[in-house]
Amino acid sequence: MQTDNIKVLLVEDDPFWQENISTYIVRNAKDIQVISIVDSKEGVMEIIARESQIDVVLMDINLTAANLDGIEIIELLSNEKIKVIALTSIAEDEVIIESFESGAINYINKSSIFDIIAAIYEAVEGKSQIHSDAARALLNKMREEKKLRKLTLSEREVYNLEKKGFKRKEIAEYLYKTMDTVKKHSRSWKKKLNV
């Protein structure tokens, strides 16, 4: 287990959470150092350029106006092979899935603050266990994906657009298909998925 000066970057815009998360880590893990706290993409990039080693980034998902900009930063950092733990108050399945798809190695709700230190150690060891805050969403996604494998590519395209709220006319225009073809694919995916 690597326990020498684990360097953590905390990316959080809320002063309450900046204080509470960093204080909790410092008080309870003498071998983990919060090297910096930043509240923006620019701040993250400045630290990454300056700091030679960052072991783990704790990334808030919403940094500005609740627009999920932390997910974009997760993707940038994962492209640089930096381990990122999403740390947020959001519990929506879609956001959890998108965080993992963008490269997060774990996802912890801020209400689970007492699990952060264990997650940091697991990340450094390369043994990240998916936190229970995210496990349900991932299981649901896996079950959904298994069902969706029954669909043809065309049925899947129509399914995805209908789930996003597109109307059949919009789908037909978007996919360059006739209305009859879109209706056929729509009926077919609903039958296959028992909807």
- Residue-averaged pLDDT: 89
Q: Gyration radius, to the nearest Å?
A: 20 Å
What ranges have pLDDT less than 50 throughout 5 or more consecutive residues?
A: none
Strand order of the largest sheet: 2-1-3-4-5
Look at the helices and sheets and give the structural class: alpha/beta
SS strand fraction: 5-15%
Q: Alpha-carbon distance between the termini?
A: 49 Å
Dominant shape = elongated
Number of helices: 9
Q: What is the N-to-C succession of helices and strands?
A: EHEHEHEHEHHHHH
Query: What percentage of residues falls in helices of 4 or more residues?
Result: 40-55%
Largest sheet: 5 strands, parallel
Overall number of strands: 5
Give a short summary of the structure.
With 195 residues, this protein is α/β, with parallel strands linked by helices. Helices cover 53% and strands 14% of the residues. Strands 2-1-3-4-5 form a five-stranded parallel β-sheet, with helices on both faces.
Structure description:
The chain is α/β, with parallel strands linked by helices and 195 residues long. It contains nine helices and five strands, in the order E-H-E-H-E-H-E-H-E-H-H-H-H-H. It has helices at residues 15-28, 41-50, 69-79, 93-101, 116-125, 132-148, 153-163, 168-175, 179-192; strands at residues 6-11, 32-38, 56-59, 83-88, 106-109. Strands 2-1-3-4-5 form a five-stranded parallel β-sheet, sandwiched between helices. Helix 7 (153-163) packs across helix 9 (179-192) and helix 8 crosses helix 9. It is elongated and about 65 Å long. The chain starts with 5 loop residues before the first strand and ends with a helix.
